[in-house]
């Protein structure tokens, strides 16, 4: 199963991608997670990416494309993968097409998680992430068992710097300008399926699994 999760920031891509990755036993590849790991380890890539991420902007295409192409060539992607947060621009989508062609593989589905902007802004205020393992929670919709503590590794939960309302609004503008055109791009290729991301987390998962099949 080779999949892409598409959607606005906070639409629930990561939440669903983790569940789908578990269900189909395929690696979950989040470019946002890759950048955050690099920031934590203070790598050159991380320091470069941070200057864009803090402002709610996209990291330049040339910094993202090679990372993903290398990742897809690793052995664990042989059986499939789920890309979360990539591609986010038309040039990234074209670069991915080329990489897949070289690998002689095709995508199965591009899953568009649809959530209106007003719901996103409300939702982002409640997102919390584990500072150690990156697991994601929501104070109301997906609360941790213990306040401020990760269920998985007991790390401290924090609000991401780029989840402050001002940055979320900027990220939404960037989404509409640079990422939303991908809906058209993948519709034309007949690869897009859309799910209603405003429903309960479990219901969204059920709908995706129904579309993908067992
Ligand atoms: P993305 O990866 O698209 O940025 P996340 O998966 O991190 O989004 O979800 C954003 C926030 O919304 C998280 O706090 C998550 O727990 C919560 N969330 C995800 N899906 C839903 C949903 N269907 N209903 C309500 N809250 C959700
Ligand atoms: P995410 O965790 O997917 O919300 O990504 C967090 C941030 O990382 C984004 O707001 C961007 O600054 C950056 N980022 C993640 N994926 C990409 C991508 N494919 N292209 C450019 N920037 C990205």
Spatially, the strands of the biggest sheet line up as 2-3-1-4-8
**N-end to C-end Cα span:** 11 Å
* Overall residue-averaged pLDDT value: 96
**Oligomeric state of the chains?**
single chain
Query: What's the CATH first level of the domain at 2-115 and 179-211?
Result: Alpha Beta
Helical proportion, percent range = 40-55%
The secondary-structure class comes to alpha/beta
Radius of gyration: 16 Å
Please, what is the CATH homologous superfamily of the domain at 2-115 and 179-211? P-loop containing nucleotide triphosphate hydrolases
Q: Compute the number of strand runs.
A: 8
Largest sheet: 5 strands, parallel
SSE order, one letter for each helix or strand: EHEHHHEHEHEEEHHEH
The CATH architecture classification of the domain at 2-115 and 179-211 is 3-Layer(aba) Sandwich
CATH domain fold name of the domain at 2-115 and 179-211: Rossmann fold
Tell me what you see in this structure.
- The structure is a single chain.
- The chain is of the alpha/beta class and 214 residues long.
- The chain has a domain of 147 residues: P-loop containing nucleotide triphosphate hydrolases (Rossmann fold, 3-Layer(aba) Sandwich), CATH 3.40.50.300.
- It is 47% helix and 15% strand.
- Strand 5 and strand 6 form a beta hairpin.
- The site of adenosine-5'-diphosphate has 21 residues, from helix 1, strand 6 and helix 9.
């Amino acid at each position: 199963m080779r999949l892409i999760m598409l959607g606005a920031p906070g639409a629930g891509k990561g939440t669903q991608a983790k569940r789908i990755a578990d269900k189909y036993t395929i690696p979950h590849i989040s470019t946002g997670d890759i950048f955050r790991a690099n920031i934590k380890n203070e790598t050159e890539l991380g320091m470069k990416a941070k200057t864009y991420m803090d402002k709610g902007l996209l990291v330049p295409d040339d910094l993202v494309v090679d990372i993903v192409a290398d990742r897809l060539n690793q052995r664990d992607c042989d059986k499939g993968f789920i890309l979360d947060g990539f591609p986010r621009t038309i040039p990234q989508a074209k670069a991915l097409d080329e990489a897949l062609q070289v690998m002689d593989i095709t995508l199965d589905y591009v899953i568009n998680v649809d959530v209106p902007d007003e719901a996103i802004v409300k939702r982002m205020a409640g997102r919390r992430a584990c500072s150690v393992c990156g697991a994601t929670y929501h104070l109301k919709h997906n609360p941790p068992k213990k306040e401020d503590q990760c269920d998985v590794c007991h790390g401290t939960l924090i609000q991401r710097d780029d989840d402050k309302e001002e940055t979320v609004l900027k990220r939404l503008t960037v989404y509409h300008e640079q990422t939303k055109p991908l809906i058209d791009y993948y519709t034309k290729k007949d690869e897009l399926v859309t799910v209603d991301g405003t429903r309960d987390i479990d219901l969204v998962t059920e709908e995706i699994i129904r579309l993908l099949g067992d």
